[in-house]
Write the structure tokens for this entry.
Amino acid sequence: MYLNCEEEATLNGEFGTAKQKAMEILTALGDIYGADKLITVESSQVAGVSYKTIGEAGLEYLTQLNGRVAIPTTLNPMGMDKFKWKKLGISADFHAKQMEIIDNYERLGINSQCTCTPYYKFKPLRGSHVSWSESSAVSYANSVLGARTNREGGPSALASALIGKTPNYGYHLDKNRIPTLLIKVNFKLQDSDYGALGYIIGKLVGTNVPSFFFVSVPKNDDLKALGASMAATGAVALYHIHKIIERPVDIIEVERGDLDIYSFEEPDIVAIGCPHCSQSELIKIAKLLEGKKVKKQLWICTSREVAQMCPHIIKAIENSGAEVICDTCMVVSPAFEGRKMMVNSGKAFAYGPSLCKSRTFLCTTKGCIDAACSA
Ligand code: F3S
């Protein structure tokens, strides 16, 4: 991969060891994937934040890093709500370790907004290049916002953040963004159906770039759910909607019966907000909870920034006894582990059994609210 003089100097350690190590990661990736050069990225989003997932080794690695990020950078959810951690049953020891991780990221100049939906506050421009690592955010950036990012790992996103660049390969190039598979959905979808569809399709598409043809018209929240679950059960980082494919490709036809993954058992806990809820999803939940009281734990995950944009909606939800939690989620927080969990998200349904060791059921949003409000 070609490096200009400044990039060469960075690789030779002239701008400090943190940037040198970051450049080593980027050049190694560029060489492996055949990138011609480094390109400038507008922002970075770094995964590997929860103490539950990165543990002591991750904390130690971060503690040793010095330097400052070169571009606006945000974080994926951490393992707890910064303020309600005691309510979530998080131990003082976990809290201390988690805050050490956040302090280390802040020391590098990273905005400690911890969310998988950074685009509700900082939306990348169509056609711009970014370097994001949360797979659902990658899918949303590529497919809904029209920005360009590969599915970065935590270390490569952090390396990009420190340098402000990424190797020019993969989804940064036009040729890799062309649809290669047609998916015809022959019935109307609503609510959690999009997450259920992503769960099924993610397992089938391999490295293809799918183009979906729907009977119904999906909203951005639906596309967020679709992309998140496709990225959880498969490697899909980009899809298209109603994009005509000019050359012959395989077609997958989906019928209603194919989405038969919903089930019901009395849950211990109902968890909504994977990916983190948008304002419109919070409004929908508040309406479903109107005049009701929850009888089981109902935890709704969103970003602190979205929660701060609509305090009256949060209040309306919490009047029912439900809890809106920020900075974290049902998958990366230890608070959900080992519970019998009902979710409305295909991604949480995919990860619940393995990452939360939790018996997990997929239901509609209304089904989740009804289950939380029944004795
Ligand atoms: Fe976000 Fe956690 Fe789901 S990071 S996409 S809420 S697993």
